[in-house]
Amino acid sequence: MKIRSKILGILAAGYVMGIALPPRAAAEVSDEDFNALKEAVRQLSEKVQKLEQTHEEDQKLHDQDQQKIQQLQQQVGETQKSATEAQQNAETASQMKLKLGQLEEQVEAQKTATEAQGKAVAAAQVQPVAPVPSGPLATHNFTLAGDAEIQFGKTTGQHSAFTLADFAPVFLYRAGDNVLFEAGFDIRLQNGAVTLASGQTGNSGTTTTIDLSFATLDYLLNDYVTVVAGDMILPLGTYAERSAGWLNKIPDDPLPRAVLPGTGIGVQLRGSIPVGQSGQQITYSAYAANGPGSVDGSGRATFVDSSGNVLPNLDFGNVGIQSNGNTANEHSAVSGGGRLGWFFPLKPSYDLELGFSGQTGPWNNSGGQNWSALVADAALHISPYFELRGEYINTWWQTTDMGTLAPRGWWVQGAYKLAGLNQNLNVPLVNNLELVSRLDWVDDGLGTRTQRETVGYVYYLTNTLLLEGDYEWLHTRGPNAGSSNKWVFQLSYGF
Amino acid sequence: MNDLTPLRPRLLAGIGLTVIAAAIYTGSIPIVNAGPQAAPAAPEKPAESNALSGATLYAINCSRCHQERFATEFTPGQWKTIMIHMRVRANLPAAQAREILKYLQEDAGN
Fold it and tell me: If you compute the radius of gyration of chain B from its CA atoms, what whole number of angstroms results?
C-alpha cells in the first residue's frame, strides 16, 4: 500500500506541475530547461520503475508469506487433527486395555472353573458321592432360654429349710433356617452325703450336680416332618415336654410321672397337620429309643444293693453305654413309641386337647421281658382364667419272678386366675393371683400306693417371675411307704 | 402309714375343687376386665382372609402353656430361634409358626 501511494503521489505531482506551468511559458522554454526537465522526467521514470520493481518484489514476498501462512495453517490444522486423533487413540487404547483386563479375568475364572470341574470330576471318579449343597450362610444364632428356681419347704416331722437351688439353662443354637441344636441342663446345689459308722447317712459340705436334661438336634425336614435326634424328652403324655419350672403351677411333679421315663436316647419324627382355618391341628410323634434297662441285667423285678436295700430293678436312665465303656443293658432291641394328639381351639383361651401315647420294648438283657406304657392326656381351657388338665398312665412290666406288674396312676389339676373375679371383687393385686389344686395317685406295681391332695397358689410378680406355694397331703401304704405331708414355697423365673 | 381316704384332706381338696367349679361358672360370664396377666394377646388387626392372624394364633397356641412373652423381650433373630424350638417342642404347624414369628418380629426388641 505504501508503494502504491508513492507512485500515485509522483503522478499527482507531475499532473500538478503540468497544470501549473503557463502555456505561454512553454513557448519560452530553452533547450537547457528542456533538457533539465527531461532529465527530471527520466529520473522520475527510473524511480517509478524502481518503485514498481520494489512493489513486485514486495508482492512476491507477500505471496510467499501468504503461501507460508497457508502452509503453517495447514500444518497447524494437521497438528490439531493429529492431536485429536492421538487423544481418541489414547481413549480407545484405555478402553481396549480395560476390556482386555476383563477378558483376562474371564479367561482366568473360566480356567479356574474348568480346573475345579476337572478336580471335581476326578474326585467323583475316585469317590463317587453326590454333591452336597451348602446351607445358607450367616444365619446362625445363639439364644439362651430356661428357668431358675429356689424352694423353701417343711415336711411333717422335719425342720423347715431351703430345699432347692436350681438353675436350668436351655442352650439354643440355630444353624440356618432348618437346623436347631438344643440342650437343657439342671445345675443344682445339694448337701454332700456321708455314710456314718452306724450305717446312717449324714450331711457334709455341698456339692454341685450338673445333669443333662436333654440334648437334641432338630431338623425341619419340611412343613409336616421334623427329625429329632439325641437325648429326647419322650412324648409320653404332655407333662414332660411342658413342665419347665416356671410353667408348672405346682412345684412338685405329679406322682404317677415316676412310673415313666422322662427322656430317652434315640431318633424321633414329629409334626403337626393343620385342619381347617380355625387353628385345629392333628399332632404326631414317633420315635425309637433305648428304652428302660435292667440294673443287674436280669429280668427280676428287684435287686439288693450293697446296703441291703431292696430296690426296683427297672432303670429309666438307660443311655446305652456305661462309664467304663461297656455297652449297657444289652437287650435285643430298642423300644418304639409315639403320640397322636388332637387340638381343637374354639377361639383363643377356649380349647380342648386330647392325646394318646405309648411305648413298648424289651428291658432286660436277654430281651425276653417287655416294658410297655400307655398314656392318655387331656387339657381344657375355658376362658383365659380356667385350666383343667390331667393324665392317666398305665404300664406293663414283665418280670421273670413276679409276672407282669402294672405300675400306674393318674393326676388331674385345675387352676383358676382370680382376675376372672375382678369384675365383682375390686381387691388390689388379685389380678395376679391364681389358685391351683391337684389330685394324684400312683401304684408302683410293687405293692405301694400313694395318694396326694394339693392346694396352692401362683402369684405372678411379672409374666416370668412366679411365687408359688402349696400344701400337700400324702397318704401311702405298702412296703415303700414313707411320704409325709409338706408345704412348699418356690420362686421361679423363666427366661 | 396313713389311711388312703382321710376326711380332712378330702374336705380341703373338695374346697379346692369347689373353687375351680366356681371358676368354671365365672368363666362363662362375659369378661369385663381381664387384668394384665390373664388376658392373652388380642388380635391387633383383623385377618384379611379366613386364615387366623399371627396374634390370634399366638393367643391360641402359646397362652395355653405359659404366660405371655412380649415381643420386645427378644430380637428378631432370637425369636426365629425360639420359634423353631417351640415349633418342635409344642408340635406347632409350620404355617402357624411362621405367622406367629412374623407377629413377634414386627415389634421385636433390639
Answer: 19
